[in-house]
């Protein structure tokens, strides 16, 4: 009783950390880091959960009070979460999401940060000069002689290419689908003349591009703001007040510069955030002024500099893999043995477990947020579920097909079913079962990288942030250890298998 | 087994089947079969596949439980015995040897003494190996995969005999061996049986084997006993047309 009382007291009485999350792209990381540093400067304890899957996952986590705040865009809230009709008036969109989110989910939109990150149609400066382009209406006049490189997403969605084609009567000479990672280089190299981007992309400043004005206000407004949970408003009103200090202070111009420092120059997010808060007069000078030369070192130097973080995340990764794998062995092994005894029900059950394997991992992770929140627990459960099938299938098949003539003789000479299982079937099935465990382990090491999207940490954090910040060294600093880990785990289990192997 | 001190009245019957019937879904494997095996006797069950010979064999150690009728071992209805314990009292040699591939020869042969928790399992196993002509020093530590087919069957016989059972059941024990090896192993088995006087029931589709090893040959056909007689009598006076055709086909008339 006393323990429970003390525990309750501790849980209720201790200072509650504020959980700040972001979505997995550069600007979201930056804004979240700014939120976090601002709160810390105001004396709050902060827990960071950067790079949560995508809108669905981040919002699910917020709605269920697993996180307190993350940066979101009003247009996304309206279109992706509320499923509403786009409107061109930023104030109306903000009012709409603010009212509806409060009514439906109890979540609040804090006053906008001051800039929009909407779709931006960009051209090279010389193209703009040559054709006299300033607006999308200008572009429409000459579009038939220009080649466009657009993201597949933009080509497809109604508020993308089909929409502007209709609103402005734009017809490009040629449309090529390009991934975000390459479209800026393609434009700079003259492979295409027009691209879609986001208005605050750092590359717009980097390549000195001209963003054409949406003079008919076709694109819905995507005003950035802090989206905060009901629990946060209730429990930490001071924290909400601290976050609103940022409202109205950021501009598209300044965001482009910050994003450029992160995406193009490779400056760590925390440093850019600290500098931004300092220049906005929200914080004093900090001691965060380290890692100045990091951006210029090569891959090996980077790996060496980041060794501590990489080691920590590798350890976390290993923990995710080992715990989920052990759980799966503990469940799948006895289940496989039980199914072998009652074969009639075996195939349907094993196929059912196999179906789990076909669920896209991101979807599975998203489903689990309302039940288990975000962080390590849902990641472990997901990895556990993915590990079940190979172990279950191999245990069942291995034990079923283990030397039937030996099993028959053991039975005829007076072994009990339990003795047959222990002394004959299991040892003979061991190599097949181990093969299943090894398969599960290697799959697990790979799948665990996705755990980063629900805030479970591990090497996926590095891969996800590296992808979001287009930082190849960071991607490799996650991917290389993950590959080595897969090899190491497989090798280790291979040794275990040889130790277990029956003679002869 | 204590020696019988009472006055022996008639032959000492160790195994008995009384009106045993066994059906598998639509087919009748055994149809009111009765058979008695005298202590020390070797009986061969012969017949074509589907004749019920293996099913009958398996009734004696309760690998098969009859639908009707009784099976008695040493005077006791086996239905009243614990099947696992019964099997540990009865030797068994399957066609393919059925050695546990992950156990050494030694451990394989020790199996039944170990299951019966008999002391001196190691010595019993060594003796049994010697009996089947395998020198323990050479073979005890080998794996089944390191043996020839004939050696494997010898180990299977040694395993069946290691715990000194009163009865040994053999299910086509030498059928998978080549002719020369088979003759060798058959000769060994014959010698052992003479030496130990162990009761044996042998299923075979090979009449030569039956004539060579058995004191009595029982011909089964479609779940019924066609004839039960010593080899010579069977050869000289086949009771039915079917038996004489079987003999003709096997050309045992020349034996």
Distinctive features:
heterodimer; A: 504 residues; alpha/beta; D-Maltodextrin-Binding Protein, domain 2; MetI-like fold; 3 domains; five-stranded mixed beta sheet; three-stranded antiparallel beta sheet; 9% strand; elongated; disordered N terminus; B: 255 residues; Rossmann fold; six-stranded mixed beta sheet; four-stranded antiparallel beta sheet; 11 helices; 36% helix
Descriptive overview:
The complex is a heterodimer of chains A (504) and B (255). Chain A is of the alpha/beta class. Chain A has 3 domains: 177 residues, Periplasmic binding protein-like II (D-Maltodextrin-Binding Protein, domain 2), CATH 3.40.190; 94 residues, Osmoprotection protein (prox), domain 2 (D-Maltodextrin-Binding Protein, domain 2, 3-Layer(aba) Sandwich), CATH 3.40.190.120; 194 residues, MetI-like fold. Helices cover 62% and strands 9% of the residues of chain A. The longest helix of chain A has 35 residues. The N and C termini of chain A lie far apart (58 Å). The N terminus of chain A is likely disordered. Chain B has a domain of 173 residues: Rossmann fold, CATH 3.40.50.300. About 2% of the residues of chain B have low confidence. By secondary structure, chain B is of the alpha/beta class. The longest helix of chain B is centred in the C-terminal third of the chain and has 18 residues.
């Amino acid at each position: 009783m006393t323990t429970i009382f003390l525990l309750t007291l501790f849980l209720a009485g201790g200072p509650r950390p504020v959980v700040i999350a972001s979505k997995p792209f550069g600007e979201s990381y930056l804004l979240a880091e700014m939120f976090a540093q601002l709160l810390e400067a105001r004396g709050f304890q902060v827990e960071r959960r950067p790079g949560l899957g995508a809108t669905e996952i981040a919002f699910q986590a917020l709605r269920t009070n697993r996180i307190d705040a993350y940066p979101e865009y009003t247009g996304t809230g309206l279109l992706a979460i509320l499923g509403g009709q786009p409107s061109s008036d930023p104030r109306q969109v903000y009012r709409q999401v603010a009212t509806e989110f409060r009514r439906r989910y109890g979540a609040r939109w804090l006053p906008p940060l001051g800039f929009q990150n909407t779709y931006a149609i960009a051209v090279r400066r010389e193209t703009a000069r040559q054709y006299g382009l300033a607006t999308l209406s200008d572009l429409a006049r000459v579009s038939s002689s220009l080649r466009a490189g657009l993201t597949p997403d933009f080509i497809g969605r109604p508020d993308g290419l089909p929409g502007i084609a209709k609103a402005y009567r734009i017809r490009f000479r040629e449309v090529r689908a390009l991934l975000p990672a390459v479209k800026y280089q393609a434009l700079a190299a003259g492979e295409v003349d027009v691209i879609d981007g986001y208005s605050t992309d750092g590359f717009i400043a980097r390549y000195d591009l001209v963003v054409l004005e949406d003079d008919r206000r076709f694109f819905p407004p995507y005003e950035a703001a802090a989206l905060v949970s009901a629990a946060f408003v209730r429990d930490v009103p001071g924290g909400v007040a601290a976050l609103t200090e940022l409202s109205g202070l950021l501009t598209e111009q300044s965001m482009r510069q910050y994003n450029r420092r992160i995406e193009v120059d490779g400056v760590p997010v925390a440093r850019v955030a600290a500098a931004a808060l300092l220049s906005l007069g929200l914080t004093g000078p900090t001691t965060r002024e380290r890692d100045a030369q990091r951006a210029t070192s090569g891959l090996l130097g980077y790996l060496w500099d980041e060794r501590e973080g990489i080691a920590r995340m590798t350890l976390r990764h290993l923990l995710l893999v080992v715990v989920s794998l052990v759980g799966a062995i503990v469940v799948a092994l006895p289940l496989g043995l039980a199914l072998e005894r009652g074969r009639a029900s075996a195939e349907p059950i094993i196929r059912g477990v196999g179906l789990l394997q076909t669920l896209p991992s991101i979807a599975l992770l998203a489903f689990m947020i309302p039940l288990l929140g975000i962080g390590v627990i849902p990641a472990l459960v997901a990895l556990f579920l993915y590990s079940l099938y190979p172990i279950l299938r191999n245990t069942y098949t291995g034990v079923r097909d283990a030397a039937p003539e030996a099993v028959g003789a053991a039975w005829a000479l007076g072994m009990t079913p339990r003795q047959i299982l222990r002394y004959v079937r299991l040892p003979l099935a061991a190599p097949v079962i181990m093969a299943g465990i090894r398969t599960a382990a290697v799959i697990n090491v790979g799948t665990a990288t996705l755990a980063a999207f629900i805030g479970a940490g591990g090497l996926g954090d590095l891969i996800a942030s590296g992808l979001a910040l287009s930082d190849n060294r960071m991607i490799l600093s996650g991917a290389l250890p993950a590959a080595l880990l897969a090899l190491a785990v497989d090798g280790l289990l291979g040794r275990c298998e040889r130790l277990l192997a029956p003679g002869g | 087994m204590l020696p019988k001190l009472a006055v022996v009245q008639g032959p000492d019957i160790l195994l008995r089947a009384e009106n045993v019937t066994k059906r598998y879904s639509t087919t009748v494997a055994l149809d009111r079969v009765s058979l008695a095996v005298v202590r020390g006797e070797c009986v061969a069950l012969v017949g074509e596949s589907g004749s019920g010979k293996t099913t009958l064999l398996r009734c004696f150690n309760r690998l098969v439980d009859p639908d009707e009728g009784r099976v008695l071992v040493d005077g006791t209805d086996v239905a009243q015995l614990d099947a696992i314990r019964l099997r540990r009292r009865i030797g068994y040699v399957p066609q393919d040897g059925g050695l546990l591939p992950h156990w050494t020869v030694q451990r394989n042969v020790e199996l039944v003494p170990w299951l019966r928790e008999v002391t001196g399992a190691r010595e019993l196993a060594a003796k049994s190996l010697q009996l089947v002509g395998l020198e323990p020093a050479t073979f005890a530590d080998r794996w089944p995969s390191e043996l020839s087919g004939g050696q494997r069957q010898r180990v299977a016989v040694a395993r069946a005999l290691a715990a000194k059972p009163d009865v040994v059941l053999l299910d086509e024990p030498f059928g998978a061996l080549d002719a020369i090896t088979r003759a060798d192993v058959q000769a060994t088995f014959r010698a052992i049986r003479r030496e130990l006087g162990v009761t044996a029931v042998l299923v075979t589709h090979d009449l030569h084997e039956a004539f060579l090893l058995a004191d009595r040959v029982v011909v089964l056909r479609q779940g019924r006993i066609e004839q039960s007689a010593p080899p010579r009598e069977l050869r000289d006076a086949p009771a039915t047309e079917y038996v004489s055709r079987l003999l003709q086909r096997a050309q045992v008339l020349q034996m």
